[in-house]
Specification:
Order of helices and strands: HHEEHEHHEHEEHEHEHEHEEH
CATH topology of the largest domain: D-Maltodextrin-Binding Protein, domain 2
Strand content: 15-25%
Shape: rod-shaped
Number of strands: 11
Largest sheet: 7 strands, mixed
Structural class: alpha/beta
Radius of gyration: 32 Å
Helix content: 40-55%
Number of helices: 11
CATH class of the largest domain: Alpha Beta
C-alpha cells in the first residue's frame, strides 16, 4: 500500500479510503487484508482484468487523438467536378497518402455549384471546382490555369483543313468553326459558359448537335467524328497521344479556365484537411 501510494502521489490513508469507496460502489470485496498487505480476491482479479482493458483502450484513444491533432489520421471528404476527379485528383491523393497513409479519403463528384452546396451542408471538407465561388462563407484560391483546346477526329474536315493550311503552324482560321458541327458541354457546366462567351466574342457560332456533361462521352463522340469539341487539354492528353483525337491549331486561339480550391471560412480546417489543401499552390506561387 505504501509503495502504491507513493507511485501515484497520494498518502497511504487516502489510498485506503479510495479502495474502500470502490468496494462500496461495486458491492464486492476486492482485497483480502492480511498482515503482509493486500491480496486480490477472486472478484478483485476479475475487476483488475477489466481495468487493464479499459486503461488499454484509454491509451489507444489518447494515441488516436494525438494522430488526429497532428493530421496523421482521420478522414478528408473532397467534392469536385468530373474533369478534376478523373484527370488531376488521383495524383494529388497519391502524394497526400505517401505522407499520411492512415487518412481515409472520400471523393464526391458533382457539378461546381453542387460542391459549394455540399460545403455549406458540411457534407464535404474541401472542394475543387472550375468557377470562382461567390459568398463570404467561402475561402478560395486559384491553383491552376487549364487551357481549353479544339479537338477533332483525325479524319474530320477540321483535321484535313489543318493539314492543308498554308499557315506555318498548320493553323485554321477561327471562321472555320462557324456553323461547324460541335459536341458541347451542357448548359449548366461552367466550361460551357466560358466557351460560349469566347466564341461569341470572336463572332463564331458553331452548330451544336449534341450536349453532354461528361468529358469522356464528349470525347467518344468526337472520336466518331460526330463533331469537334472544346475540352480541357489535360483531359484529352492520352487520346491525343494515341492518335484517337487531334488538337486542331486555331489561329489566335487562347482560351483557358481557372481551377479553384475552396472551403468554408469557418471553423478552422482540421489538420487532415489543412495538409491536403496545402498540396495546392496558388497561381502566384507557380
Amino acid at each position: 500500500m505504501r509503495r502504491a501510494a507513493a507511485r501515484i502521489g497520494i498518502s497511504q490513508p487516502a489510498l485506503s479510503k479510495q479502495i474502500q469507496a470502490l468496494e462500496d460502489t461495486i458491492g464486492l470485496q476486492l482485497f483480502y487484508r492480511t498482515p503482509k498487505g493486500l491480496q486480490p480476491t477472486g472478484d478483485g482479479d476479475v475487476v483488475f482484468g477489466f481495468c487493464e482493458r479499459i486503461f488499454g483502450h484509454l491509451r489507444d484513444l489518447e494515441g488516436a487523438l494525438d494522430l488526429r491533432r497532428k493530421g496523421s489520421a482521420g478522414r478528408v471528404a473532397i467534392g469536385t467536378i468530373n474533369s478534376i476527379s478523373t484527370h488531376l485528383l488521383p495524383g494529388f491523393i497519391k502524394t497526400y497518402r505517401d505522407t499520411y497513409p492512415k487518412v481515409r479519403i472520400k471523393v464526391v463528384t458533382v457539378r461546381s455549384r453542387a460542391v459549394l452546396k455540399a460545403l455549406v451542408e458540411h457534407k464535404i471538407d474541401v472542394g475543387l471546382i472550375a468557377e470562382q465561388p461567390v459568398g463570404d462563407q467561402f475561402v478560395w484560391r486559384p491553383f491552376m490555369k487549364s487551357p481549353l483546346v479544339v479537338v477533332a477526329a483525325p479524319e474530320s474536315p477540321l483535321a484535313k483543313l489543318a493539314k492543308e493550311s498554308k499557315d506555318p503552324k498548320n493553323g485554321v482560321s477561327i471562321e472555320s468553326l462557324h456553323r461547324t458541327d460541335m459536341v458541347a458541354f451542357d448548359a449548366p457546366a461552367p466550361t460551357r459558359r466560358v466557351t460560349d462567351r469566347h466564341l461569341a466574342k470572336l463572332g463564331v457560332e458553331p452548330r451544336i448537335i449534341a450536349e453532354c456533361p461528361s468529358i469522356e462521352t464528349i470525347s467518344s463522340m468526337v472520336q466518331k467524328d460526330i463533331g469537334f469539341a472544346i475540352l480541357p487539354a489535360h483531359c484529352v492528353e492520352q487520346e491525343v497521344k494515341t492518335g484517337r483525337l487531334i488538337t486542331v491549331p486555331v489561329n489566335n486561339w487562347k482560351l483557358e479556365r481557372t481551377l479553384y480550391l475552396v472551403h468554408l471560412a469557418g471553423p478552422p480546417l482540421a489538420p487532415t484537411v489543412r495538409h491536403f489543401a496545402d498540396l495546392f499552390p496558388t497561381l502566384a506561387e507557380q
